[in-house]
Amino acid sequence: MKKNTLLLTLLVGALTLTGCASKKDLQNCQNENRELTSNYQDAKEKLAAAQARVTSLEDQLAQQKKDYAALQSSLDKSLNNANSNNINISKLVDQINESNQYIRHLVEVKSKSDSLNMVLTNNLTRSLSKEEMKEVDVQVLKGVVYISLADNMLYKSGSYEINDRAEETLSKIAKIITDYKDYDVLVEGNTDNVPVNASAASMKNIRNNWDLSCLRASSVVQYLIDHFNVAPKRLTAGGRGEFNPLVSNDTELGKQRNRRTQIIITPKLDQFMDLIDKAPEEK
To answer: Are strands 144-150 and 136-141 parallel, antiparallel or unpaired?
Structure first.
């Protein structure tokens, strides 16, 4: 009996000890669970914050890529414009150099032409006598030689026919024209403003000063051809009537100066163009 009682007591004690141990383990598990739950929540919050940071960084990176692309595009355009400008500047420099070269060439040609004109003028003036120089004026204006002869030394009074005293002077002019074969010659008649006397026999069929100036120029041209064998193709006759005066016609001296015939000697246009070659082409 005692033995059974002792055994029962030991069994109750063991169960009591076992219950106490299980309750303690449960408490520990609960504490650990709460700690794990708290850690999990913290980790979850940290993960969310990290993901938000990543999203922000990705947005910043995307914007930086756009900014870089825009900057690269702007830089490419600037480089293209710079290259284009460099090409245009280079072409402009080449054109300026060509133009300067052409201008220098023109200056040389003009200098050569001016020299020829001065030689022509000097040769003519040296050949004229003092008396002839009183009625002959020789000038070089804008690259053209002007020989102005008074009408009273060329024509018969009130007429367009060449008089005898004109032969010597015209022979000297004809020699200059013949020597300088690369020049063309324009003979230009000029009058004062006094109307022609249509009733005079010498003025028959002459309507006005236009007619008279043209006939006088034509008479000089014909005289140069007939008497001195000047090539007709080099000669041109024209008249300007009273409309190209040197001075006013208000005085007798002024009218006398305006009644003149000009022999204008100019370089042939085709010869002149041969001298200057070909102008630079436009680009």
So the answer is: antiparallel
